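Why do we bother with a discrete structure alphabet at all? Because it lets us treat a fold like text: something you can write down, compare, and reason about line by line. To make this less abstract, here is a complete entry for NHL repeat containing protein. Read it the way you would read a sentence in a foreign language you are learning: slowly, and without expecting to understand everything at once.
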Amino acid sequence: MTSQPPPASLLNLAPLLPDSRVFRGALGNPFLAPRGVWLAGRTLFVADTGQNRVFIWHRLPETEFAEPDLVLGQPDSADTGRNAGGSTGASTLQYPSGLWSDGERLVVADAWNHRVLIWLSFPTCSGQPADVVLGQPDFNGNQPNVGGIGTAPNAQSLNWPYGVFSDGERLWIADTGNRRVLFYEQIPTQSFARADGVIGKPGFTERDYENHEPVWPYSVRVGPDGQLAIADTQYYRTLLWNDWHSAFTQPADALVGQPDFDANGQNQFRLSPEQHTLNWTYDAFFYRKGLLVADTGNSRLLWFERVPRASNPLADGLIGHANFQTGSENVNTRFGTDRQLYWPFSICIDGDRLAIADTGNHRVVLGRLVIS
């Protein structure tokens, strides 16, 4: 008997994403390991991380390849060098990752320059310089915690910031290398602004961690009902607070992927994943009353119909595999990886539209969620 390939849409246990399409960027200039994706209405943003640039499409592409309307971080859409092949500046990027935009402003986590860049008005031309830099005293600096390796953090410094999020007023930064999340009461309009609060540490100058704190926070998201999710990659878990205000003073209310704060096993020390385990999780996103978690190392997305309020919850559905016990990105390689996910790093939902940075496949997956 000859095996048949899986259906063209991404495999899923429930019909969460019955139709999806692949987008690879420009035909002669495709993505390389994109780690960030964002939707703002019909506008698509992609952090083409491996090539040190951010692409913007004013309308969602409907074909596999499409030329971008704008490119940031490089003087030309075909250029790919770190910091545009020169020194760090207001218009350069080095390993951009997390993105956020409301269609009027744009925030980019410029991770390997140890800074966050902000465009206070929407970019109108390629290579446009940012208006504000956080984490560095000026646009020329790019050392961890300003002073370099070994320098203690403070309320103005950053070290490998991979994730950003805003509710349109406030700003959160996953300051990954400092094992914390920084909070700003307003999106800063001045460079080198001090954070107003810190999540995961008793103060701004500490970097050591306890097991109940974020160990390697890669992304941060705030839900429509005020919940907070932090993808804590190194401990294979997502930290959840019922109210983001409480995160400054208390540990998470629930954990996805682990039974308690001391547990830190990859797939909870199993050889293969299960309905409640995670492996190198890098993102999460609130949707309706539920939560979608990027279970990156298992090459899948886990869906929870209700935001979990207790630890170690069972997922209600998934995208990327046919069952919860499959975790390899190579399970269908004989048919090609176009029919499955391969290390999805970032997800974004706007309305019912879903965008996935399918990093290992060097592409973005676009589709419309169907939740009963």
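What the structure line is telling us, in plain words: The chain is about 0% helix and 35% strand. Confidence is low (pLDDT under 50) at residues 1-8.
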